[in-house]
What we know:
There is one protein chain. The chain is mostly helical. It has a single domain (2-21, 32-90), classed as P-loop containing nucleotide triphosphate hydrolases (Rossmann fold, 3-Layer(aba) Sandwich), CATH 3.40.50. It has 5 helices and no strands. It is globular and about 35 Å long.
Amino acid sequence: MPEIKRMTEPEVDALRNSGKGNDSITVRGKRCPRPIKRWSQCGLADRVLQVVAKEGYAAPYPIQAQALPAIMSGRDVIGIAKTGSGKTMAF
């Protein structure tokens, strides 16, 4: 997404650290994809986006914001987060 590509490194870092408490994102690896801000930025089909909206997911949780771009680009992902953080929805 052009909007994601235009983000500066400080903006990416701020987004990764915007979670509450321990919900900040730690990323390891080479050329890790930038996190998304909205569901429409992760490449999901319109029908899937409609279901996401219907289920009440207004915006991606931090684990989803970082994991989905990596998963959608075909990369392997290990996500570690507390219960209720949105891991299952990301994968």
